Amino acid sequence: MRIPFVLIITAWPFLSLAAAPDLIVHHGKIATVDPKFSIVEAMSIRDGKVVQVGTNEALLATKGLDTKLIDVQGKLVLPGLIDSHTHPTGASMHEFDHSIPEMETIQDVLDYIRSRADALDDGDWIVVRQVFITRLKEQRYPTKAELDAAAPNNPVMFSTGPDASVNSLALKLSGIDKDFKPTESSGKIEKDPTTGEPTGILRGAGSYVKSKPKTKPASQTERDSRLEMLCQDYNSVGITGIIDRSAGADGVTQFARLRAMNRLTVRFAASYGVSPSGGIDEIRKRVEAVAKDAHRQPDNMVRIIGLKMFLDGGMLTGSAYMREPWGVSKIYAIDDPRYRGLRYIEPELLTQIVDAATDNGLQFTAHSVGDGAVHTLLDAYEAVSKQKSIKPLRHCLTHSNFMSKEAVEQAVRLGVVMDIQPAWLWLDTRTLLAQFGYDRLRYFQPLKSIFEQGGIVGGGSDHMQKIGSLRSVNPYNPFLGMATAITRLGKGVAEPLHPEEALSREQAIRFYTINNAHLMFLENETGSLEPGKQADFVVLDRDLLTCPANEIRDTQAVETFLAGKSVYRAEGKGE
Questions:
Q1: pLDDT tens, residue by residue, 487-546
Q2: Crossing angle of the two packed helices 249-260 and 220-236, in degrees rounded to 10
Q3: Which residues in the chain are classed under CATH 3.20.20.140?
Q4: What is the pTM of this model?
Q5: Which CATH class is domain 82-88+218-565?
């Protein structure tokens, strides 16, 4: 029986439209970041996922009546970029109370403190957070006397994390005098060798300061709007995924709430912050509670992937735990030649905590900046690995700035992943060279060594304050991160820092895409532009694979897509 011709011409379009893509991106240079780092001309997308990649001719032939076409006119297209280390909820609210200027000198710090003293009542606390001494022109803490002069009637705390410099009134109100002793063995109150009085510098002891800063209260609606604004700013630099490296219940709930309101424009994974205080039985209960959280279930938008603790201090504050002494230092106000920094968790307890995380199927990570902390954490992973498998959990080293050849080899062998912030090399090399010298920095952020040995390391920012990818404290602009990883050039430094550890351009792109997807446990869903994966991608204004190296950091996103939907378009650009 012959089918009437009219049925053929009406049925064919129907069948074709059912399989037609929603979107075709064409005439581009699309870096798929698949295992071969394939470059293609076009990509088709349906239901938020990549359907095909290939030639313009082949993919344009699949378009239907409703298929949207985007001609990117030869521009480079990358998978959506991912930041492996952020603190988004706090960062989004940082300037809600008042605008905070950039502070590049001690005078800038003191001027800001004076302005706050004028704005506040006598007795109100003034707290300056995360203005790192490594980035101040003078490369030192403001002294107690300077803080006293700037705000004689207000307690002042210049906080850089667990470390701080405080004025006389802050010491008095906190009960810190020459007889005060920290209850934690790792904390240290610096004292004048002649008088025994506190100098105002507190190492790993900032928690003893009884600060009560007065801030403007924010409603839930205001907090959500600020977080949404930050996520959109992440999109403006091509970021479509982030890991919160010390999330709390409220932060995870807030991201879930944005998602429920269809206002979440980045994929969110969380390392849940857990305290190491108390005995191992108490800690195990906390770990078990995280494992039972409803947000532990597989979800490519909002998910808790593991837990986070703090193992040592910081390189920006002079308290990272090192294998060798820091050395007497005017920069960090260190006068003990034997001082190696601060370690907050004893090795035996750390191993027990890693064991508890492993038993509960959680990725464990710890803030581990100094090489002493890195080796301590790797040894804990090694000990647990002798009893049970840890590779599937992707236990992590967070920061791991100071490493060694042996640490890299051990991490790779154990399947331990790493989360490193190249912007610290950009911002802090000048001070680190003055403190440690060139040779001791041989394995500072040894990215090339990690890649060459088959390790998985992801690029992050440790973004903790302000909205704005370059004005933030710890800038979250991924193109600055890529440029630094490629050139190894620090701000204000003429020569690269150990260029043998520089990444190739392809490696730098993997560093912020598929590697970070692996850290998020999402490498089968995002991080590359392969058929079946989420269509998270960014169109750039220049070719990172061929442009001059000194232009990489100036790269701009033209348009950013999450699951095939535009979440950012630069004004005056795009189709």
A1: 999 999 999 999 999 999 999 999 999 999 999 999 999 999 999 999 999 999 999 999
A2: 80
A3: 82-88+218-565
A4: 0.90
A5: alpha beta
